[in-house]
Amino acid sequence: QLQASGGGLVQPGASLRLSCVASGSITSDMNWYRQAPGKQREWVARITRLGSTYYAGSVKGRFTISRDNAKNTVYLQMNSLKPEDTAVYFCNQATYWGQGTQVTVSS
User: Fold this and answer.
1) Parallel, antiparallel, or unpaired for β 101-105 and 8-10?
2) Tens digits of residue pLDDT in 12-37
3) Helix %, strand %, coil % for the chain, to 5?
4) Residue 49 and residue 103: Cα distance in Å, rounded?
5) CA distances from 15 to 33, 41, 57 (A)
């Protein structure tokens, strides 16, 4: 199981940190996805088993994915948030998905 948390309502330019706690080990690649209302789910970021990171162009330079294997937790630090970042954010490991956490960016 994957449990995501940390979402909320923030103003443009603010920061949030999402967490995803796994019930088991997270030694495989971990991803964050997001889904805005009326849109398809889109990939946001990946951290590989060895710690390499990759980002969608829309968030590169603003978001940072990291992992703490000892805590079975993956994080998504989101800075300089924009209204277009509003979505439900999901963590993913292989075929497993968390329940999502809502991020709303609005003034």
Assistant:
1) parallel
2) 999 999 999 998 877 789 999 999 99
3) 5, 50, 45
4) 26
5) 17, 22, 18
